[in-house]
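We both want to read discrete structure tokens more fluently, so let's practise on a single case. Would you write everything just below, so we can both look at the same thing?
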Amino acid sequence: MFKIRSEADKWKYVVGITGMAVCLSVLLTWLLLGDGLTTDMLRASILGPLLIAPPACLMSANRSLEIHQLNKQLEHLLAHDQMTNLLSRSHFMRQMHEMQGDLRGSFLMLDIDLFKQVNDTYGHLVGDEVIRRVAAVIEEHVKQDGLAARYGGEEFVVCLPQKDLDDAMQRAEDIRQAVERQTVKVLDKELNCTISIGLGYADGRNPVEEVLRRADEALYLAKRQGRNRVGAPLPLAT
């Protein structure tokens, strides 16, 4: 079955089906009339499909393309967090499990510091904007070679495949500093926020849940040590 995924596919479909209809019409006319086939009859066998097939094919192709585009939109909605447009937690974890045996690289667990105070002081609309701003910073720093997801609430997770802990530590520090520099305007004030980050490393031997748990422990150790810092990874069980 011809799959219509783009405008180019649509017109290939219209031309292809129309051409097949013309050929089939001419063939059937010749088989039915044989030596009695006249020029006018041949012309009619060609013009008929040319008048009928293109609009019918175009209608069908437009519908198929529309369905494909709607399916792509639905896939995007299911795979992404609606507030931040980062990957959803479920989609992120599904990708990690698919790579489980071959997964080598670093993980970052990130959490906005004192976020409850932001919500309580400025309201949830400002809190939502803070989440979006932090998510945008994270995405900007990992979009070339990593995966970022909203893990839940004000917490995020990043996977940096094939990156060692030194690279991950530098990336985490870059993200931390970028978040610290940005501001969110609230009425006549500028609100600053910070994040704490914990690191973990996957060597292919431990389940991804265990790697993330250790990264989460490193994150909360960083918070206990004063927040707005990057926590070194805790050792994994062997």
In short: The beta strands are 105-112, 147-152, 155-161, 183-186, 189-192, 195-202, 230-231. The first strand starts at residue 105 and ends at 112.
